[in-house]
Design brief:
It is a single chain. The chain has four helices and no strands. The chain is mainly α and about 80 residues long. It has one domain. The radius of gyration is 12 Å and the shape is globular. The two termini are about 20 Å apart. About 25% of the residues are buried.
């Protein structure tokens, strides 16, 4: 999540994006409900993908898109 936030700040993300808001809300809802950080992050990722699929005008080069890409790039998948 730090990679996401760092990129959001560096991209001057000064206006809320519906896709990112949906993802953040899913993360905090899960975490507040007692989920681990890993499970809350998984909920945020699923919400992000669903929101992107439901938003045909989502721009991957927007601050939200760049932030999500920075987060995905930070994952160690091995």
């Amino acid at each position: 999540m730090f990679a996401f936030m760092d990129e959001a700040i560096l991209s001057n993300m000064n206006q809320a994006d519906d896709v990112c808001l949906t993802s953040a809300e899913a993360y905090f809802d899960a975490y507040i409900a007692g989920a681990s950080e890993a499970k809350a992050t998984k909920a945020a990722g699923a919400a992000f993908l669903e929101a992107v699929a439901a938003s045909p005008d989502f721009e991957p080069t927007s601050p939200c898109g760049k932030s999500a890409q920075a987060y995905m790039d930070s994952l160690d998948l091995y």
